Amino acid sequence: MNKLSVVELSKQFGKRRLLDAISLELAQGQIVSLFGRNGCGKSTLLQILFGVCKADTLDIRYNDQELTPKFLIKSQILGCLPQHGFLPKSMKVRDVIPLFYPQSEAQDRIFYDPYISTIAHQKIGALSLGQARYLEVILLLYMPHQFLLLDEPFSMIEPRYKEAIKEILISRKAKKGMLITDHYYQDVLDISDRNLVLDKGQLHQALDIGALQELGYLAARSI
């Protein structure tokens, strides 16, 4: 089982220490959730791991071998689903899929997926938020990356597509290690194996929804 470990990750903006020597581990076959209030540093953490933002200190290891985020991405060890849509809105779904999967078995799986086959002739820009997000997720999940960062996969989409995304994430997790952050906490809890809360620069384990309240992520009325 492959592992991706992060040790002593720190990031400071001015006098504010946003991430304070935090550590976390991802393993294939596990979905790890990352919760935290707005501005706590979740997006910064994902951006550092994906090489978009530079950390003050960072030790990241793949199976105990120290590597850089740039190498992890270039080697297709680590992939990322950004918060906002990344597919060209003017292209049709049927034309986008071969860009990711030219002449492969995965291409057929995606084309014949029941949620994709019905929208194959539509332009990306004409899709609902749920349809577009499901397409982005399934395109990413059949790629060879062993580890994935998923930024708000459930945000603002229709319930049936939330359920479809959960199903495809669970079906593919045997081959992937995933870190998911999303404010739709119940959707994440439905599929996560471990839960983390980022608060005041530190990561804390959360065993259940009650712990999310105790750690200050959820108010009592949310439960």
Overview of this protein structure:
The chain has 223 residues and is an alpha/beta fold. It has a single domain, classed as P-loop containing nucleotide triphosphate hydrolases (Rossmann fold). It contains 9 helices and 10 strands. It has a 6-stranded mixed beta sheet with strand order 6-7-8-3-9-10, with helices on both faces. Strands 2-1-4-5 form a 4-stranded antiparallel beta sheet, with no helix packed on it. Helix 7 links the parallel strand 7 and strand 8. Helix 6 runs parallel beside helix 7. The longest helix has 14 residues. It is globular.
**CATH fold group:** Rossmann fold
Query: In what order do the strands lie side by side in the largest sheet?
Result: 6-7-8-3-9-10
Shape: globular
What is the element string, with H for helices and E for strands? EEEHEEHEHHHHEHEHEEH
Q: Calculate Rg over CA atoms.
A: 18 Å
Distance between the termini: 35 Å
Overall mean pLDDT: 92
Helical segment count: 9
- Number of domains as seen in the coordinates: 1
